[in-house]
Each structure stands twice: as structure tokens, then as C-alpha cells.
Amino acid sequence: MAKYTDVIVEVKGQIGTIKLNRPKQLNSFGGNLMLDVIAAFRELDNHPDTIFTVLTGEGRFFSAGADVKAVSSQETPAFANDADKKIFYLARFASALELMRTLIDHRKVFVLALNGPGVGGGAVWFQGIADIVLASSTCYLQVPFSSLGLVPENGSALSFAQHMSIHRANDFLMFGRKLSAQELEQWGMINRIFPVEGFHGAVQGFLEGQLSVNDGKSMMESKRLMNAPLREGRMMAVLNSVDALAERFVEDAPKKRFEVKKRELEEKSRAKFEEQHPLVYNRDSFSSDTSDSHELDDFDVEDAYKHTALSPSQRRRSQSFSHLLPWRAGRHSKWLGGPWKWTRLLKRCSLLVVIFLLAYVVFTPILRPSYLRRPAHYSGKNEKGEKVFIAANIVDEELIKGEWGKRVAELVNLLGKDNVYLSVYENDSGQKTKDALQGLKARVECNSSIVSGHIDLEHFPSIQILPNERRIKRIEYLSEVRNKAIEPLTSGSTGMHFDKILFINDVIFSPKDAVDLLFSTNIGSDGKTQYRAACAMDFINAFKFYDTFASRDAEGYGIGVPFYPWFTGAGSGTSRKDVLQHRDAVRVKSCWGGMVAFEAKWFQGQHSPPYPNNEKDQDSGWEEVWEDMVDEPKPIENRSESENEVGMAPLTFRASQELFWESSECCLIHADLAAMAALYSKTSKPTQDFDSGIYMNPYIRVAYSSESFAWLEFTRRFESLYTVPQSFVNWLASRPPFQPRRTANPGDIVEHREWLYDGPEYKHEEADDLEERGASRGRDLIAKIQQNGHWTTKKTKAMPGGFCGGRQLLVLKKSWQPGERMWEKISAPPGADDH
């Protein structure tokens, strides 16, 4: 049986039940509900055993029709003319059209079980098509069509007229008359009424009773004979109603009517509120349990069109705390000078609080904006003519031909074309990407390496997780791709010596900001930058920071809730304090942020001698660990003077080889950089102020769309307002999460838990058979992994970057559809017991 998000589908014997499952939204048709209902009816239509298909709802409402909040939040484009506008709305109603066709052509006996009220579409879409209608005692139907400038939807004008006569149908559909279950039964719209308690069980029992005395196939054949002559008329009625509804939207009638009703409700609410005392509430008037709370007034749907003066939560709070007040309605408290004096005092205090909050909200963006005014030395110029190696991996041909390519070309001009080498690597992205990159190469007037390569996944390094299943690790793949981008630098094939490297993701950025990131971040007294790495900040929308996977604060803690000031107060809270002081060099252990600058020497193999006069630091204790990460360097004491000038092999990206322990390659590169610097220079070791020479620069921001980027300068004005709420949500969400290897220093002897595969050796032939049968997924996959391995405690020397990792496995999918992500996350089997 298919999986659904907004309906529950059950089959018991010859009865298939579809239950609308959005009770918090009163089962209104938003989310995936429409598509789920269509798919569920199609599934049960083809079920070999069922006779009845029952449609009902979860909770106290059957359905409130269209999801008003969801519809109002949908963006409406600008239209060239009325024809364009009508086509847009006809397309929007296509799913409703398919729903009605599915219901009309459904072969099983369609039983509508109204567990509660039906409003709008929930009152008319199904009733006229259903073969049998059962209802609970709390059921009523009401539609707001005329009140909202709409028309009877989905053919209901015909179906209701056929069932209850034209005059009664007009009373209901045109005037919005509310019909109780008893009236509906009298008018022939409901077959039977059951008590609301145990309603679903009663419906099931009733239908089982019918099956016990009637032949199922005969009932289905009876349905066919009755409905076949009606099909053409029903479908024509549906099409006519969709056309009429689209015309109403072309005329903006619903919008105009809704604005009128909104003003009327606001005036009614205001008048009602003024009649009541602001603090002393009458329990009877505001009880959330009164019968009025289930009624519809004029055209309103509960929650969607509610117009009471107070929300249910406000009512409950007023009732819950009223007994704490020193009086009741009509009483006096002499020691307070009477209730009215106390009321005036509370009103004045409340007013002062409101004024203070408003002033704080208004003046904070003006007087204390966050990271708005850049330091005076930020010039957007390469004043010293430094050489920059720009590296990128990008596959989106539209970005390459559009904003990204344009901004890269501007950046090259700002840096000076003779000072830049541009290296772009992509693989297996198609001819359009290749053509776009060749167009970019023609646009930039600098030395460049634009490569469209191929990575053979069949022979790419992989890990075994099951006897017949090997997977490629995502981070291993990304490390390979990033290393291809910097290969001209690490191989020395450019013929140039570089001062800085700039990595640029597929982001929208300011070329001047990129120059300031390179040459203005953390300027020293000599006018030179003092960093090993400096990151921008990337945003997925106008407010939310994106790259949390690669970011760690100055003590290795994970990021907080990804809104300003982004970090938590864990440990000494160094990074958070730096942000609140508006420093342009926020101390961190790692970052990426869509754009990052590095000192180039670490990637060129041209470091300073590791120690003065070859004096080995006996306290470092982890040279052997580092030798595992480089191409067999000579022991320090055996290097010649010339070899010391060259130093170690160039820094490159890497991935963790451990199963169920993943670290971003963009985090590990910073860990390796800090470790290399600490090993090769006594003066560059991390100090007690957690300064590793790696910084995040919140002045420099990038985004993943032009729309979000355009808002970043404006929204940073308000960021200081988020400080207290972000701290509270960090506490509420237990941020940062526990990191078992955060405190492990490179070279330390540590014990940690590792997953050990102990199943049979991989056989390619059997793996092919597995692919034909389909690979395991989800919990089934984890269960199989658990059967072929175990957790073990391992004592080893810690590598750099323990703070980067977490318990998960990111791997290439066995198969994927165009447009899908190639990668998936596999959760770690239970039993790691990290501490």
C-alpha cells in the first residue's frame, strides 16, 4: 500500500477507508491532502477485495474545505491580460477537476461518512457524488460561496438540485443556510445518523452488516447502472463550475468580498471588545466549551474565519489566572484602593511596556544595526597587487551564464587580470554546462583552467556496508571534486606564486565584498591581513544562515539556531561574544559560508621552516599522525635546509574513512590547516584565547538566490533584535548538540567507538542481482547493516578535526531520478554509546 502524508488508508475485509488526516487544520484541503485523496481513491479502485470505499475525517471536523491560509500565502504573478489570468486559475483548479473525475468514475460503492461538520468544499464536493451518506449527530453543512463572491464548486449546483430540489439547493448554496444532520436526513441528503461517540466503529459495523446479507458484486453493479447515465451530466457540471469559478477570480470578486468581510469582522470584534472589561472576564461569555464555539456565523469557518474578540488560548489564560486577582467581578479590594484604581495602574504599566518594546524595535535598527557599517579600511581594492587563485565547482549553466558568471568577471577586473588565475572544475553535468563554462572562459581576461571532467563511479573508492552492497561516501566524492579545482595550484602547473586562494560556491555575491574578504579581514598594524582562513556567511533566505555542517565555533562547538548571533554561549562563548561586538574576524575553528579565503602558501607546499634551526618541538607529540595525512614527508631532523623551505606536501581536501562518522571536507580542511600551522611554527600554535587564525567575517554575506541576496543589506539592520530569542531557542532546542570527539587534540591517545563491518566479502555478481531486486531503504537497511557489523572500542591517535564529525553516513544513492539529490543519509545503528 502506498505511503501518504495527509490521509490514512486502511483495508479491513471488503471495506477500504480513507481518512482525512489534518485535524489541526480542520481537514482543510491544503498540503498534500488533495493529491493524497486522489491517489488513495485510485488505489482502492484497483484493490481486488474491497466493495465499499469509505471517506471520513480525523478529529471533530469532516473538512473545512479549502485551506484559506495556504491559498492566501500563495504568490500570484502579474498577468498580461484577462485571458492569461483565467488560464492561470484554470491550471490552479486542475487538481480539483481530477479529484471529481476520480470520484465520478470510482467503481466501488462510495460511502461518505461525515464524522463532523463540513464547510465550503468539505460540504459539497463529495455529498452529491457519494452513493451512501452516513453522518454523526454533530454534523452540519454550510457554504460561504455567495458571501465570498464565489460560485457552487465542482458541479454541486447540479448534484444538490438533483438530490434536494432546486429551491432547497438555492437556499443552501446561494444563501448559505446551515443544515443540520437531521435536516439533511429529511431532505434526502443523508441515509443514516449515528452518535458521535464511536462513530467510525458504528460505520464499520453497519457496512459489515450490509455485506453479510448482500452480494458485493451486485451492489457494485447497481451503482454502475445508476451512475452511468449520469456521468456525462456530472462531468459537464464540474467543467462549467470550474469555468465559472475562474471567471470570478478574473474579476477579483473573491478578493473584493473578502476585504469587505474582513472590515466587517474587525468592526464587530472592536465593538465587542469595547463592551467588555479589559481585565475581568465573564466565564460564561468566554467559555471555550459553549455550543457557540462549534457554530458558523454567516460565512465563517472555525479557525479560518474566526471573529471573536479573544482567541481560545487567550480565553483559557484569562480563566486560569482570574482566581489570582484580588477581586471578582463586583467585589472590591480595600487594601488596593478598589479594583478600578488597580486596573488603571495595570493599564498604564502595560502601556509603558508596549511603548518601550515598540521603541526598542524601532530604534535598535537605527541606532544599533548589526554589521551594517563596514570598517573604514574596506575599500574593495587590491591595493598591493596580490596574486589570487580563484577556485570553484559549479554545474548550473543558468548561474554560469547569468549572475554568477557576471560577478566572477567583475571580480577578476577588480583584482586585476594579471593577478588572477581562475580554476573551475565540473564533471558529468552535460553539454549545456560545458558550453556555459566555455562562454565564461571567453568573458574573463585572465589565466584560467576550465575543466569539464568525468569521474568513473564504478571504480571510485567505496565502502562496504552489506555483503552485496558497497557505497560511495559523499564527502569522499566532494573532496575529490574540490581537489580537482585546486589541482593547478597544488601541482604547481600555473607558473605563478599566489598570496591568497578564494573558493566560491554557486552563490550570489558582491565582487567588492569578495575583495574585502581577501584583503581587509583582520588587518594588522602593518596593514596586512592576519588570517590563515577567512569565511563569508551564506544565507538560504534573508534571515537564515545556511552552512551549519562545516561551521564550528572557537572551541569546536556546533552552531546554534541559525539566526543572529548564530553561535551559542557554550564554553566561554568566544564566537558569540565576537559577533555581539561586531568584529570582522569572529574566531572560529572552521567555517565555509559559500565563499572562503585562505593563505595560499599552505596549498603550494611553501611554508616557513617548521622550527628554527631544525629544533624539533618535543611536546607536539603527533608528527606520526600528520605523516599519515601527507605524501610521506621526511622526518624533520633529516630534512635539508632547502627542504625545510619547501616544507610539507600541499594541503588538500580529505574525508574520514570511518563508517558512520562523517565530517564535512570544508571543516576538515580548516582542522588540517590549524594542525599544520601548529606543527610548523611555534608562534602559530593556538593560544588560550582560542585564536587559530581562522575567522568568520559577518560583514561579507552571500546568498543562494538573487532575491535573498537583495534583502541581506536590509535585514541585517534588525539582527540585534534576535539576540535574546535566539539564546532562548538554543536552550529550548538543546543547542549545541553533544560532540563526542570535540576535545580530542591531534596526537592524543584516545578511545572512541567505531562501526566494524564483519559480514561476507563483497561479490560484484551478487550485487548486480541485488540491484535488480531493489536495494533496502530506511529502517530495513539499518536493520540489515546491524546484522553485518558491530560497534567496537578502538584506541588510536586522534587526527585533526574530531570536532567536525557526527554519527551518520552520507552516501551515493543506488539510483535516483533526474532532479533528485544523488545522496542520502543513513542513520547510525544503535549502540554507539558515545560519551
UniProtKB/TrEMBL annotation:
Keywords: Isomerase, Membrane, Peroxisome, Transmembrane, Transmembrane helix, Virulence. GO terms for cellular component: peroxisome. It holds the Pfam family ECH_1. Its main location: other. It comes from the Eukaryota. It is found in: Peroxisome. One of its GO terms (molecular function) is isomerase activity. The chain crosses the membrane at residues 349-367. Belongs to the enoyl-CoA hydratase/isomerase family. This is Uncharacterized protein. It comes from Venturia inaequalis.
